[in-house]
Automatic annotation (TrEMBL):
It comes from Winslowiella toletana. This is Glyoxylate/hydroxypyruvate reductase A. NCBIfam families: PRK15469.1 (NF012013). It is an enzyme of class 1 (oxidoreductase). The gene is ghrA. The active site is at 228, 276 (proton donor). Transmembrane segments: none annotated.
Amino acid sequence: MDIIFYHPFFNATTWINGLQQRLPQATIRKWLPGDEAPADYALVRTPPVAMLQGRNQLKGVFALGAGVDDILSQLKQHPEMLPEHVPLFRLEDTGMGLQMQEYAVYTVLGWFRRFDDYQLQKQQALWQPLENYSRKNFTIGILGAGVLGSNVAQSLKAWGFPIRCWSRSPKQIDGVTSYHGDDQLNDFLNGTQVLINLLPNTPQTVGIINRQLLSQLNDGAFVLNLARGAHLIEDDLLAALEAGAIKAAALDVFAQEPLAEQSPLWSHPRVAITPHNAAVTLPDEAMDYIAKSILQREAGEMPEGKVDLARGY
């Protein structure tokens, strides 16, 4: 069994050694330009076209991240890069779900307890108790009901907030009000106080958080983007913040990364920023999943996490 590995900045030695311990029967190597030797599996992040092109013998390609938009965008330009019969797998959780829960719970509780307001008052040396929000009216709406979205929904549900989710296709999450499809998006937005984005990045979801969508949230709503910068029209968010329609936002992802120094988001007092690290790939958990999935493929089974190329996730 031959496995090739490519990542633009991960330490290849760490991954190769870790996978070798889990799959002692495999031969694992770092892919380098010009390497056309046989391979059964490929582990990749933003792979060069030449790495995968023409490898008809591949049994699977594993994307080293929760999203696969980097590979899908390459396939748009180079459809011959990945043979049609070769399945593409993404890391559905592998520790990222817990990290997303931590980020979402920390941020939402901060808004709910008005810690952002108190921080602004601190800068003015202002001692002023503020009226608490009503928990029953602090409805949290999550765009995306996949593995990460459902994990975040369950973690916030434990705090007693009303939780709702919206997805393209019907999903059921215990104790969560579910909406799906374009026809139910308005109903999902109406009454939402906190909007959390965990959608996959597809042509259908690019720019989905725009002026029109933001205007349908509760007045003074909050926005948390944990998915992709392409989902959010940043100028529309800034306009909504200036108008007071949106009270605050926490952003981990941006249309341009790193975020340009001249971006007005940096200086806005109601915008919190982190550098696209809400959830990072954890090597041990990821290698456990990949090794298990490869063994399943070798046994003729289809592992979880297979990407539907037509849907983009």
